[in-house]
Amino acid sequence: MKKLELRSSANKDLLAQFSTHLQTLNYSEGTVYTANNGVKEYLHHAEQNEIDFIESPNLTHYFDYLKKRPNHRRDGGLSMAYLHKHLDALKRFYQFLLLTREINAPVFPTLPKYKSYPKVLSVKEVEQLFKACNDRLLGKRNKTILALYYGLGLRRKEGVQLKVEDLNFDKEEVFISQSKTHRQRIVPMSDHVKEILEDYVFNVREKLVPQDKSTSSVLVTEMGKPMPVGTVTYVLQKLVKESKIKTHASSHTLRHSIATHLLESGMKLEDIALFLGHRSLDSTQIYTHINNDKHEF
Prior knowledge:
With 297 residues, this protein is mostly helical.
């Protein structure tokens, strides 16, 4: 629905303000992007049908429409996962409206629950990704990306925001100063992760960063600049292709995978929650379901 165009300049401004609001709250780029598209479709539908979404914020009729709307990417209708994401986006949107305007309380539909667990890689697939990294400069840099997102279980932004001074090789730990939950934490390094990071920092990174363009970012591009999230995604897609594994592997996939593998190895759920930086065990509990599903026959 990215191609939809809003007619109302007021709605365009409102959508821009909503996006800025989410960014201010430090939501991930993916969440902002998804929420922005969902709200844009909703506002477009309101314009087309002359619906006052502030005076009459009853979304049950809108979701009746979505349940019948054809899927524009494939045959059939919209999935329950899509409807839930759409509902989450609109709940955030109305939370924003309630903070900034006088509106009537919104009425949201009740959607059926659905079972959706994140995809994880097997230990063998992770090993194949590491083997796909050669011993040249960029190969070792790419191996460092795997070490950060799998070996340390970092969130996408945590990896690109990590600074060299956050790495403590003597204590074998990494300091995460910026996180999605606004909580700082210490993440331990395994011997394998420490070996990869030390080799990269002392033997690779300095050769990638020009002396006249110094940066404290751990992850850097081929040109020696701080690595953006998009480059991390590109590198991982390239490694998946070269390793010939069949499972899609994003930075989130690697984070989910290490959590699942730690649980399978016998680590306590509470310790995994600390490792990942979860505020509550509810977020970590999902890995018990993934683990149980893998062992159902």
